Amino acid sequence: SVSSIVPESCLLIVVGLLVGGLIKGVGEKPPILKSDIFFLFLLPPIILDAGYFLPLRPFTENLGTILIFAVVGTLWNAFFLGGLMYAVCQLGGPGLNHIGLLANLLFGSIISAVDPVAVLAVFEEIHINELLHILVFGESLLNDAVTVVLYHLFEEFASFEQVTILDIILGFLSFFVVSLGGVLVGVIYGVIAAFTSRFTSHIRVIEPLFVFLYSYMAYLSAELFHLSGIMALIAAGVVMRPYVEANISHKSHTTIKYFLKMWSSVSETLIFIFLGVSTVAGHHYWNWTFVISTLFFCLIARVLGVLVLTWFINKFRIVKLTPKDQFIIAYGGLRGAIAFSLGYLLDYKHFGMRDMFLTAIITVIFFTVFVQGMTIRPLVDLLAVKKKQETKRSINEEIHTQFLDHLLTGIEDICGHYGHHHWKDKLNRFNKKYVKKCLIAGERSKEPQLIAFYHKMEMKQAIELVESGGIGKIPSAVSTVSIQNINPQTLPLERVLPALSKDKEEEIRKILRTNLQKTRQRLRSYNRHTLVADPYEEAWNQMLLRRQKARQLEQKMNNYLTVPAHKVDSPTMSRARIGSDPLAYEPKEDSENLPIITIDPASPQSPESVDLMSEEPKGCSGLPPSPEEDEEGLVMRVKEPSSPGTDDVFTPGNGDSPSNQRMLRCLSDPGPRPEPEEGEPFIPKGQ
């Protein structure tokens, strides 16, 4: 019940305080979290776990925003806080006057960086949405380069008698060397790890060892040359993961996943416990003015930095950061054990007020972890900030994601705008054409991304099915192949197939992959200036225009029809009307040459050679009636058969005039047609 209100990191610090107080009460000296132990053994597992399982798509899509917060925001915090603390020291009385500008700037660079360990501990418990999580966590990972550069820079400047302009320029250039150098070291070790995993198919047991070994070597190599070890670990994890997972077995993948989670959890627990113990055991020098000013200016610098940078970033973002998002980003700037360890590394020779710096750092850490960490969950609920939705990825989602990526890449190519979709597609093609062939063993290097994702989902669902014990209820998403792999059934003796050799089986698989899995082939490049015109397009346009004109003319003629059409009589009414006045329905004397139609009133039928479109009363065809036709009444003419090859839809016939179309409203329903006899077409001619 307590852990639902108080974050786990706060409880661990309290445990550390109790353990430290107990050790000190017994008369022993409590152990202190030494910086070497922290940076060499406790920090790397947490960063490797974060880098290896980093959500790459949201990270790359928001990389510009993350870099602005990590680089510009950290520089702003360091110099703003250092400058204001220097002013406080000059006005704070005799106890603070001797602290110079460089010492305050160094203190500002230590306390300004957001801590990844504290952010992970708090943000994973409140389940914030993916965008805010990746912005704050990505900032905490990438600001390590700025912190390392500023820390070593001001530490070196403190030993100089005079700082020149050249030293400042070299210090500015060292930022690019530290950050890009750390990334380069990580990429090199990531490629080596992926290449090594190609040849571990016969020794599956040691596959997880290579992931841990090369990642740790990347971190140590970067720290050896004073580069950013955190960025080297992140780069190594991101680069090696897709290739290593394609080469190693499923058991090795499970081992890597759970061992990294366990290792990072143990390190996180030890860090917060030792932080509490070190608070009791360390030497402290409390100065109200310095500590309270540090805490106040940390909050002010964070809020101002987020507001100003977000105002600038929103000018270029499609998905804007709302005021609620800005508040969570500013409120989530937690400090942690990295700041404490950097402060513990300071030398008494150059920084005599190290104890006061450590006291202020611990105060800021406790305030951010306890106050901000405990209140961020109710604030998220109060502001109704969107939370993370736990949804399983599906094949449908993967297909639509790839479709939209290809679509946006094509739009950028047509527009001539080379955005990040264009370069991402170029990188994917280069990866598929060259890198995969070198780093992935066997035929899996040619396997399409969608097929690989399907195999991964199928394996995951099959394992979940076995663990849940629901083998009797097979979901539709799991194929029968995976079920057969889980519970292999012995075939009857008469159906046993002859065993295939390994070479023959591999040849069959190669043929199937080559011919059945080409889901995405390189199409010929297109250009809007070289498109070939469709020869049938003009003819179709002409036919559509003629049909549109005919409809418009019909609507105009219907507007002139003011007399409502007669209601169609039922067969019973028709029989009653003919029985009451049979003379009105007898043929005229002058109409001997016309075909006589016999109609049964109960079921009126018409010969199939007569069509309603040819029935016209005199005077309705647009021509004046002749004297011979004046007394003939209703005449039913025989429709001429249409010539072969004519278009019944677009070719206007004799009965397609607007007046003939209007006659349909004046005619009664001829009733149902007779059932087709043998040899007759089902649809009569002329329909």
Automatic annotation (TrEMBL):
It catalyses: Na(+)(in) + H(+)(out) = Na(+)(out) + H(+)(in); Li(+)(out) + H(+)(in) = Li(+)(in) + H(+)(out); Li(+)(in) + Na(+)(out) = Li(+)(out) + Na(+)(in). Residues 502-529 form a coiled coil. Residues 583-687 are annotated as: Disordered. Residues 6-380 form the Cation/H+ exchanger transmembrane domain. Keywords: Antiport, Calmodulin-binding, Cell membrane, Coiled coil, Glycoprotein, Ion transport, Lipoprotein, Membrane, Palmitate, Phosphoprotein, Sodium, Sodium transport, Transmembrane, Transmembrane helix, Transport, Ubl conjugation. It is a multi-pass membrane protein. GO terms for biological process: regulation of intracellular pH; sodium ion import across plasma membrane. Residues 477-564 form the Sodium/hydrogen exchanger regulatory region domain. The chain crosses the membrane at residues 6-25, 37-54, 66-89, 101-122, 134-154, 166-196, 216-239, 260-282, 288-314, 326-345, 357-380. InterPro entries: Cation/H_exchanger_CPA1, Cation/H_exchanger_TM, NaH_exchanger, NHE-1-like, NHE_CaM-bd. GO terms for cellular component: basolateral plasma membrane. It is found in: Basolateral cell membrane. GO terms for molecular function: calmodulin binding; potassium:proton antiporter activity; sodium:proton antiporter activity. The keyword Manganese does not apply. Belongs to the monovalent cation:proton antiporter 1 (CPA1) transporter (TC 2.A.36) family. This is Sodium/hydrogen exchanger. The gene is Slc9a1.
